[in-house]
Amino acid sequence: MKDVVGSPQSLLVLGGTSEIALATVRRLITRRARTVWLAGRPSPALESTARQLRDLGADTLTVPFDALAPEAHEVTLGKVFAEDDIDLVLLAFGVMGVQARDETDPPAAVRVAQTNYTGAVSAALICANAMRRQGHGSLVVLTSAAAGRVSRSDFIHASAKAGLDAFAQGLGDALRGTGVHVMVVRPGFVRTKLTAGLRPAPLATSPQAVAEAIEEGLRRRAPVVWAPGALRLMTAARRLLPRAVSRPSGPA
Known about the structure:
It contains 9 helices and 7 strands. It is α/β, with parallel strands linked by helices.
């Protein structure tokens, strides 16, 4: 089964309860998607999400997946690809952490880094190799606009996302000519359950708006998508500023 550009038939969501990924899946179900695999930690939320997608007409299955158990990724994800070709993989898992706490709790900071980077690298390589073997597919990797200029307020989370962003770009280069397309998505502040209670950043957006940007990026086979697009210019401008300008005031 080969995917039509921007309109895949079979999907694998890594991070099966991600609001951005699910908004994307819902859009794709209204187009052509018919089979959806939701990979995540077993939970009532994962099963509830699967039921919602079935109600929309998609054959939806769940598979246990833990970013912090990379030793199990090959077997778990291999079973999915053994069932059928996968046209689109959405790598959408991650944790924010609590910056103030994690700075003084190294094991907690390591868990944030391992989830957002190490676990993602493991899953992305396994899926990329499987799609290379099948000869087609798209891998969408959600990173963060914050990866473009890591700030004092969330440098643990953002630094891991910056590493993932660089990795995904390199993976895309490595897969050129194989039929596999890698697209990096850099959302800004997205109003979700994950960010509830946080002060919205400029150009805050919604999962639905990010999903629309993802679908358009797939149609264009874009290597990188910013959501919203204006963040690209804002981030470029911030990079030109000396770090001393953006650094909080206080003792050096």
